[in-house]
Write a structure and sequence with these properties.
heterotrimer; A mainly alpha (452); B alpha+beta (189); C alpha+beta (532); A: 452 residues; mainly alpha; two-stranded antiparallel ribbon; 5% strand; B: 189 residues; alpha+beta; Alpha-Beta Plaits; 3-stranded antiparallel sheet; 7 helices; 27% helix; elongated
Amino acid sequence: MIEIINSRPWIEWLITIAKFAFCFVPVLYILLLIPMERRGAGFMQDRQGPNRSYIKIPFFGKIRLLGYVQNMCDGAKLFFKEQFTPSGVNKFLYNLAPAIPFAIVFLSPCVIPWFGPMVFEWGGSVVRVSGSILDSEIGVLLLFGFSSLSAYGAVLAGWASKSKYSFLGALRTSATTISYEVCLGLSLMGVLLLVGSFNLTDIVSWQEHHVWGIVAQPIAFVCFLIASIAETGRAPFDVAEGEPELVAGYHTEYGAMQFGLFYMGEYSHICINSFLISTLFLGGYAVPFVTTETIQAHMGGSLSILCGVLAFLVLAFLHLLYRYSRKLKKTNLTHKNVVLREYLLYKICGWVAVLVLIAGGLCAWFLFNPSVSFIGGETVYGIGTALGTALIHLLVLVVKSVAFCWVWIWVRWTLPRFRYDHIMHLGWKIILNIALVNLVVTAIVAKLVGGN
Amino acid sequence: MARVVRHKDMNWLERLYIFEACRGLWTTLKHAARGLFRYEQLPTISYPEGQPEIWNSYRAKHRLMLRPDGTPRCVACGMCAAACPAKCIFIEATQSDDPRIEKRVMRFDIDHLTCVFCGLCAEACPVDALRMDTKVVSFEHRTREEFVASLYDLTSWDPKDYPDDALSQEAPGGTRNAEARKIWGMEVK
Amino acid sequence: MSNYYNMPKLPTENSPKVEIFVDDRPVMVPGDTNLLEALKAVGIETPHICYHPYLPVSGNCRQCLVEQEGPRGRMLVISCYTPVVPGMKIYTPASSERVKNARKATQEFMLVNHPLDCPICDKAGECTLQENFMEAGQNESRLRPEVGKNYHGNPDHQFVDSKGQVRGGKHVDIGPRILLDEERCVQCDRCVRFMRSVAGDEQLQLAGRADHTYISTFPGEKLDHEYDLCVTDICPTGAMTAKYFRFQKRVWLLSHTPTVSMDDSLGANIWLDHADGKIWRMMPRCNPQVNRSWLSNTSRMAFQTFSENRLPAIDASAIKIGEGKVAIVLGGTCTIEDLAAARMLKDSLGGRAELFGGTFRAVGKADGIAKSGDPMANRKGFKVMGVGDNNLQDLVKRVSEFETLITVNADLFGEDAAAASPLEKIKNRIALSAFDDATAKKATVAFGIRHWSEVQGTMVNSLGILQKLNAAPTAPEAELRPAYEVLSQLSGTAITCASKAFKKAGEYASVLAEYSYDNIKSTGALLNGVEV
């Protein structure tokens, strides 16, 4: 035991254990996705979305956090609601069912590479830490396996609820999930063929050094996107909970936090799938047009550019805030002074953030002095550079995945729901065939061009 | 007679759905971007704080016009009740004390829970006594009985709210009331 | 007494048919009447204001103009005063522009000084002038607005209104029951003719001349007559209004139930005008054989008490008929159906029941207009049904024999408390009555039933005409039932429908057997073999 612990430097153990925090990323994404969906849907429909709940704090008055407080209220409400169980159900399965999709939330992030492999010099030797919690050779397959498990939650919920609506919803959900997982896997095969590995870190580094998957396999990308939307059971493929027909699908009979678990499971499923897409097709953590080596060589500059970009975003937000405050002053809304006082807080926070970011950028530019050492003919940077790289990689991955989460929301609030047979038709007769043809063509081209 | 609307057949590009779906996505994206970057241009109103702009011709809560001496101009003819498609106006008449005026209204109730705000009552009124220009559009009460506007409710309006309306200004409390009282041969208080 | 000079001759079923040419088309019309009635008989309505079928023709309104082909060409004549002549050629507005224009001009002239009072006028909605105007009127005024209306009538009643116009004669109090609005009067003199020819008491006169004419009573006198409210019915405008109905209800809100007044034995035909479950007024219904268009004030104002002092409905099981002899006393407002049910009850009780009928009130004399003076409304019906109609004294004499007294619509104690006092010896007194009257108060069991205005039924009036009552939906309680329902239930065979009860009456009285309830016309049916 002690030998195993002593075989690695303590910093490697620290980072490896710290990486388990990434299991909570999908749960944190829920906090982001729900307001994004609500207000995004509102904006698409030319309304404001929920923005009325507030927290009252001294001096600044009613703080609404741009409508974010509403989600806190909803969460609190769901958490404290009475949990009821319909009579005559299998209590064990009924209570087990919501836990399954939520448990998967913590399993799936294990195989996703959050940043490139950390290689740094520590105590005279080279330390290597992989970017994912579990750097498995069959990472993609594991991920698919995990996400397929969520169908169990739906099926159990539908069966245990003892309701026809739930049962039909569960049937539809499982059928859709199973059908589209075939498409999902097959459309992915093109990329895997090019990369030659199931390891997600390999896939990302191949894309980093060659070309992004979306460029190499555009058809596969489209098929994968559609199939993964269908697999998450979101509009326009949400026949399982088509409210005109099935009330709410398999979670009709669930309330309070049990419903909340299904709800969170659905959103984290979106989150995982968007991570997967950005990893497989958008180069994962790779910064566009820049290799990891370049970033590491110019760490100070990279960090200050990052700070500059962030400062620009905060300034843009401040600009919107100032412009809206100016317009608000001219209106005759009775609560405009309250809102302006609230905005004052955001402005202060924004300006502080801008100053901190600029200062940080300047510090990084002038003061960051990476330590470089050559060990075994290899250029190895210090831990500071490695952590900075990991930060940049992580942020890039987050930006890409959030963009894809937006696609989910965007599609949901644009397209009308398909009919059930249309979904099956689309899955089995169109996407599957396109994916197959794409696979064959990719294989032939890859052989002719002469890959591996 | 049912009317059959024939739509143009979709061409093959439209039937592919994916391009039409992308067009739809583009539309919603434009709207979402407007909401995000031009928040103040959203057509919605932050309701209780921001009130919708209501113009004079909007059919809002009723009011009864007054003669300069303060009595309702209504002669209780019942034309509004006859015209009302919702049957929400209840009128009782009685003999007027003023010898020059024959009939006066004793009870004038409008049930705003039943009212459909069609404006036919104001149209039907032969003496321009009933108007719907109060701009009161929201009714909040605790009991059903409070939704029934009585003669008192309908006649207690403030001439200051109708600065452009000369007839309202002649009503008691209006700026022109003293003059009107003189015309009517009443003493000016 | 009465001045029947110029009385219009009305067509009857026996009128000879003659051929005349209306708009160049031959039509067969009654030959012994005036042109207006003849045209009406073939379905051509002629607007008229001063003409009334039961009043002498005066022909002053000139509204009923038609064209007649004469020796000097086509002339305008008033159809109300032109007798029908076989072969005459008549032109109505349908073919003649001249008639149309003439009528329009007449009407416009009539309306020159008629005030625009329709919103506050009680006649609005049933006003002849309004109807004619809506039908054929000139919808735009040709008067200059600065001239306005100008009243020229009684100078004593003139005043200047709030708009500075000369007005006059509003709500003039000409009698205890009538208000006169001189402005609205179109001087048709119907009311004058009514008071002179029908009421026989010439209390009204037209005073002044030309457009200064106005209706007036003699100086210092008031319009006060038993039939004076009829002038409000016949007034074609809102000039004569009844004080009791003034501003009470707009007439278009009233529903009308045709029925028969059970106030006296003539059985005047009436309309019950009701709204919101309440009777607002009672109007005469034209029946040429019975009351023509007239109704006495007593009968007319009776409705005001119909909804007052009513007995509540109680469970019929509360009525316990004892073992001894039973006297069933039927009041004058019992319908034929009630009598039939009472006879059913008598039959079911066997020999120990006896039927009595009658009233303690005095029987007056007929006034020849719309009252027979007999307060026992269905007296002929009692005779037809074989129920004693005047044997109350007999009951009073033999009062000790009876153990149970059932009074149906008979307020014996209210009519004559002294004469009825021996009846108190009967220990079991059951009163079936609409009102909580003296008899009901003295009764051991008081059972609320429907009033005659709320029941279906039939009655035979003093002229031997079988007339039909209809139910106005004004019963204060839905549980109240007609007397025949209660009586038939007591007899053991419940009848809940007037037509079945009438059929039952046919079993007791053969003269009724040839009729069925649904076939009786609204003007009634003259019974064969009933002495008048």
